[in-house]
Amino acid sequence: MTTAPSAAKTTAFFQLLHQTPGLDERDNRGKKHAIALVLSGLTCALCAGRDGSLSRLHRHMVNQFAPLCQLTGAAQSRPISRAQLPLLLAKVNLSLFAKLLFEWFGLDLSTLTGQWLAVDGKELRGSIQAGQTRGDACVSVVSQAHETVVGQAYYSGEKESEKLVVRQLLMDKGLLDQRLSLDALHLNPLTVNAIHKASGQYIVGLKANQRLLYRACICRCLLDPPTHYYCSEWERGHGRVEQRSYQCFSLARAVFDARWQAAGFQTLIWVKRNRQPLAGGVITEEISYYLSNRAVVTEADWVEVCGAVRGHWRIETMHYRRDVVLSEDTLRTAMSQVSRVVSCLRTLTMNLLHRLKPKNMAAQLDHFADNFTALLQFMKTEEVL
Questions:
Q1: PANTHER family of this UniProt entry (predicted)?
Q2: Strand pairing class (149-156; 228-231)
């Protein structure tokens, strides 16, 4: 069952792409292929599980070219060639395309109030060139409740810092005043200070590389009794059983270094994870620490904070599906722009598939691969075409 399209949409996404000036940065001389048709064809190919190779995506575009043209009313005589496909994608105005993509989703920040959003980056491994250790990377902001991507940005792992890109993304998208969970990389004064100043809430990982802060928090755990405590039952999944214990410590009277004074630290969260393989064996123990500017006063506060700590892994689930279900990391290209444009379309695909709420996403891709008519109907219902 699909979700009704947003009322904010005044046209189908295909028409929006077709009508937006500046999206196509090709020279007007010799244009043969409509950029909206190519991007729509790629989206259909991704929804049919053809990811992992630009050649596979192209073959699907060629095989299903006629019905796609018939539905969209495109007056195109022949599909784009495999050689021309990356050259055209390299001429897509990426920043404008991403803006159109997320505006078309109709994401209203007021609907995110009270939700926790997970922030993390992911390397696009297919973009790593010979002799290099890093390639392009994608930073995403994902709703913990629905696993929907609400914001995205790209950067070069060889030249740029994820911390700067995340901070800029949160500012550009107006997300600094939301509830955000971040990993330890983003325990940075500029980032947490900006969130706190904007009246946002954060939960951010703490590791030993922040030596003085880490030591102060360890001492707090040793000397002060926890204000709240929770221990889960043993839960089975992913080939193991796991038990999680949470403790909360107040930082209201703690004194921190000057660079952390504007961070608004209120709570230290201690988490212990005990795991054992289903086949038996040694029980392993892992302890993690998190800092938050959210004061935990009531039991409801504590339940929400524990849920947000665990819910951060929804973004890892999204990354896993992009890699395993859509084969994102196996799509190799030497052109950074191509990698990023296809990644944007992959985000569109993931968000569209979530609207169907499939029990098995891989099975849904197979269904669309076997029944292109059903895929076109779905795209029409969701106002993509």
A1: H REPEAT-ASSOCIATED PREDICTED TRANSPOSASE, PROTEIN YBFL-RELATED
A2: unpaired
**CA geometry: angle 114, 354, 240, nearest 5 deg:** 85
Residues in the chain, total: 385
The alpha carbon torsion through 331, 337, 342, 347 (nearest 10 deg) reads 120
Task: Sketch the domain layout of the chain as residue ranges.
Answer: 13-104+334-381, 203-299
Query: What's the whole-model pTM score?
Result: 0.87
Q: Where are the beta strands (DSSP E) in the chain?
A: 116-123, 136-143, 149-156, 179-182, 201-206, 228-231, 235-237, 240-250, 267-277, 284-292
pLDDT tens, residue by residue, 141-155: 999 988 888 889 999
DSSP 24: B
DSSP state letter for 49? T
Helix (H) or strand (E) holding 102: helix 94-104
Burial of residue 240 (CB within 10 Å: 0-12, 13-18, 19+) is middle
* 186 contacts: CB under 8 Å, gap ≥ 6: 119, 163, 166, 192, 204
Q: For residue 85, what pLDDT band results from cuts at 50, 70 and 90?
A: very high
